[in-house]
């Protein structure tokens, strides 16, 4: 029988972490019996069902901290473990990572946790910056491996001593290929796209203020939805750029959207290795993004795009203006970005490395059950 593998993630909404889980889950079905559990219905559950991947809902698993609801989510997760009897848990996002790993410990199931964002970055509230590291250190003791989606994130984990260095593994995000390519010579008025959920950390305010300072003809396409969208729409009116900005809402065909634009931009305050930039590189687009987290590993300064200081309206406006005014530069950077995607950020490499981690952890678990010495990194 195939080993039973359970993926646990807090939300099913469309986002980078959910796209990551879907990519890895479908690649593992030949070797494992794959199940996916999440706190609600949405993009991920629909996509899994379309692929005949079993889906389980943990009703009280929510992103927000709620002591009563979190206790209920813990017992719901325990019930799911007793029903499924998984051989391995792979948890994603902080809440499901904390609850899932603690349940796995009680059930003596080996667990792995992928860190999509450390809960103590400089852009986060001060309380999280204080309690995040000790909570992560505690939860790390319950799991066999921590996977980070970039080497820079692994360095943060080592710097804060979240886990022994031998148990922190960097596996860069990757996505599957598609046929769509941007046609950068076609439009006279360049279109800039930002694909991101409307939250404070994505910083649409800075993007809009910077775009308003771009005097050359250009259009801005904002793809996504979320709690800060209303504030962004209000700012568009205040800046007098309503005729130059389009709010496209959530789209299920990002690969098609990106073939219709000329520049990809991301004004985040906190990132690790955003899948949206990999999608832009796959489409052959030049990128303008914040110089933080793992973004410099994706976007090579001056080669595949331009990097700016996070929160700097002036720098972002200057970078956007440079690409809007220079079509040849857009084409050159987009071509190099596509080549970099092919060489380093295709999903095949990510999934192969992830499977290798699974095999190592299951082998260690078998040796432990046979009474052999624990693996060195746990000593």
Structural summary, described in words:
This protein folds into 2 domains: 205 residues, Rossmann fold (3-Layer(aba) Sandwich); 154 residues, Glycogen Phosphorylase B (Rossmann fold, 3-Layer(aba) Sandwich), CATH 3.40.50.2000. Helix content is 44%, strand content 16%. The C terminus is likely disordered. The chain is globular, with a radius of gyration of 21 Å.
Relevant CATH superfamily of the largest domain: Glycogen Phosphorylase B
Strand order, sheet with most strands: 3-2-1-4-5-6-7
The largest sheet is: 7 strands, parallel
Strand content: 15-25%
Helices and strands in order:
Elements: E1 4-9, H1 16-27, E2 33-38, H2 43-50, E3 55-57, H3 67-84, E4 88-92, H4 94-106, E5 111-115, H5 126-140, E6 145-148, H6 151-159, E7 168-170, E8 191-195, H7 204-212, E9 219-223, H8 229-239, E10 245-249, H9 254-257, E11 263-266, H10 275-283, E12 287-290, H11 295-298, E13 305-308, H12 313-325, H13 327-344, H14 347-369
Parallel strand pairs: 1-2, 1-4, 2-3, 4-5, 5-6, 6-7, 8-9, 8-11, 9-10, 11-12, 12-13
Helix pairs in contact: 1-2, 3-4, 4-5, 7-8, 7-12, 10-13
Characteristics:
six-stranded parallel beta sheet, alpha/beta, Rossmann fold, 2 domains, 44% helix, seven-stranded parallel beta sheet, single chain, 379 residues
